[in-house]
Amino acid sequence: MCGIIGYIGDRQACEVIVKGLKRLEYRGYDSAGIVTEEGGRLYIKKGAGRIDELAEKLGFLEMPGKRGIGHTRWATHGIPNDINAHPQTDCTGKIALVHNGIIENYRELREELLKRGHRFDSDTDTEVIAHLIEEELKSGGSFEEAMRRALLRLKGSLALGIIYTEEPDRLYFVRNESPLVLGIGEGENFAASDVPAFLEYTNRVVFLDDREYAVLTKDSWTVKNLDTGERIEKSVHKIEWSLEMAEKAGYPHFMLKEIHEQPKAIRDALHGNAEIIHSVAEEIAKYDRIFIVAMGTSYHAGLVGKYLFQRLARKVPIVEDASEFRYELEDVIDENTLVIAITQSGETADTLAAMKLAKRKGAKVLAIVNVVGSMATRIADFTLYTHAGPEIGVAATKTYTTQLTVLTMLALELARVLGTADQGYLEELEMGLKAVPELVESVLKHETSLRELAEGLKNKRDFFYIGRGISVPTALEGALKLKEISYIHAEGLSAGELKHGPLALLEDGVPVVAIAPSGRTFDKVVSNIEESKARGAYIISVGDRAELMRVSDVFLEMPRMDELLTPIVYVVPLQILAYHLAVLRGNDPDKPRNLAKSVTVE
Ligand code: F6R
């Protein structure tokens, strides 16, 4: 995900663009750049880093000109650095553009353009577009026609902002599968990935649809069909939301927005890894000694990974908290070891230290990471991305379920490579995995009842989360979500552990959340529920079997699915419950006390 903004009018373009970029920072923040034009000359400033730092370091606000475009990046092709930041330009330096999306056929186009003598400066897929338009311009006709011909050759998703020095009065914006909206002002016009970027100046907007492009001048806006070049009539809508609401797409907090983004994030994780997963599985198949290292929520994902690997691929990884691994396991790591590091940010100090140690001892390191180009990806021998997009809320939600998606894909493929599971079953499981986004969508519909449940629980002092087998990590993660944002004490544990101590803490009304999907240990969990109920506990069960109703005070019914897929879906109601408990207790779930999004110190 990236953010783009464009302006044409009588204001200093850079001021409008910098403000807009800050409002789009939730879409990506690893690098940013701006191009403005004055007197037939383009002014470009760009670099890796966050907008505020770059604005100061590069002097974004000193750029001349009354038209321009800006970009805040979340890297997909090419690591975040100064050269890969947008805008990207053609060889003549007359065309500059910014892009949100992925050009799938950029490699072939790049090869072709290189043969025709084009010089490329960056590793991005975006730069291809600028050179392709330059090439089409050589065949004559207007810039608009050349741009359209070039764009028709691209496969993939895009939202583009384009500026051309030879046409001083206009900007072009194109949309196909990435969001783009026009802001219609008086004697000025705007375009952006999202309304908040310009809502301060106008609330009159035109939503572009796929395969449409817009030509903006100071006083006019025209929308055309990308395939035919014909003009399209569009209506202007009036936005009634406040700026704050708009930034969070109408959700009161980023955490809730990110919880609701999970179906899309999981789909992106599935698509984004479909091609690469086989080669990674083949590499992993060579190792018998596997460690999984991570912290916090990512550690819980690692625990799910262990169950998946052992059930499907008959490999039993050792899952270690990275802060322990780095001091305890040095002597058992060698070149026959594979270390899988899981980290959303790719910057967690303990996880990086564990990875470096593993490399020093000759082990192979696979990273499962969300932030492209982060430190973890540079240390690792190979990386799988979770493709969840930026996560702003401190509590991990969509990055957890996408980590689980990637681990499930990996275990499945590993089982295929090793022949450790029935092929028919693996196919069924794969189909089931592809249906998980819809299952998550159906669970998200229970939000109102979860909020009501939270009402009745908001004054509780302690919570227990129990599960067995692959549901143990779900219990741990449910408890972690609750403590970190609601500040209620919570423990997650294997249901079998209850009678070895914790049962002593159960008394009238203490909530016990039981994760109880159909599967190997369903009956055992029901017994644990009954023994908790006998001590007066208030039972909230999460499962797919109606008989849970008999033993529960509240039954959260989940759709049916293979037990191995339940960690991705069953955690969702626990995230929502934690969220509402936090809000009802007056906490800001996006910024829990004492915690930071990425823990870069030991
Ligand atoms: C909890 C949470 C943390 C992180 C942990 C590791 O909601 O977000 O527990 O999971 O700090 O962070 P990453 O995954 O960035 O290494």
Describe the structure.
The protein is an alpha/beta fold. Helix content is 38%, strand content 23%. The strands form 4 sheets. Strands 3-2-4-1-10-9-11-15 form an 8-stranded antiparallel sheet, with helices on one face. The protein is globular, with a radius of gyration of 26 Å. The mean pLDDT is 94. It binds fructose -6-phosphate. Fructose -6-phosphate (F6R) is lined by residues 295-298, 343-345, 348, 351, 395-396, 480, 484, 598-599. Fructose -6-phosphate binds at residues 295-298, 343-345, 348, 351, 395-396, 480, 484, 598-599.
Our measurement of the CA-to-CA distance between the termini, rounded to an integer number of angstroms, reads: 30 Å
Helix content: 25-40%
Calculate Rg over CA atoms.
26 Å
Unreliable spans: none
Main beta sheet: strand number and arrangement?
A: 8 strands, antiparallel
Oligomer: single chain
Structural class: alpha/beta
The order of strands across the largest sheet is 3-2-4-1-10-9-11-15
Quick take:
With 602 residues, the chain is α/β, with parallel strands linked by helices.
What is the fold's blueprint, element by element?
Layout lengths: L2 E6 L4 H11 L7 E8 L2 E8 L2 H9 L7 E7 L14 E2 L5 E9 L2 H10 L11 H11 L5 H9 L4 E9 L6 E6 L4 E4 L4 E4 L11 E4 L4 E5 L4 E5 L5 E2 L4 E2 L4 H5 L6 H7 L1 H12 L3 H8 L4 E6 L1 H18 L4 E4 H7 L8 E7 L5 H12 L3 E6 L5 H5 L2 E4 L12 H21 L4 H22 L2 H11 L4 E6 L4 H15 L2 E6 L16 E6 L5 H12 L4 E6 L4 H4 L2 E4 L8 H19 L18
Parallel strand pairs: 16-17, 16-18, 18-19, 19-20, 21-22, 21-23, 23-24, 24-25
Antiparallel strand pairs: 1-4, 1-10, 2-3, 2-4, 5-6, 6-7, 7-8, 8-12, 9-10, 9-11, 11-15, 12-13, 13-14
Helix pairs in contact: 3-4, 4-5, 8-14, 8-15, 9-14, 10-14, 10-17, 11-12, 14-15, 14-20, 15-20, 16-20, 17-20
The structure holds fructose -6-phosphate.
Fructose -6-phosphate binds next to helix 10 and helix 17.
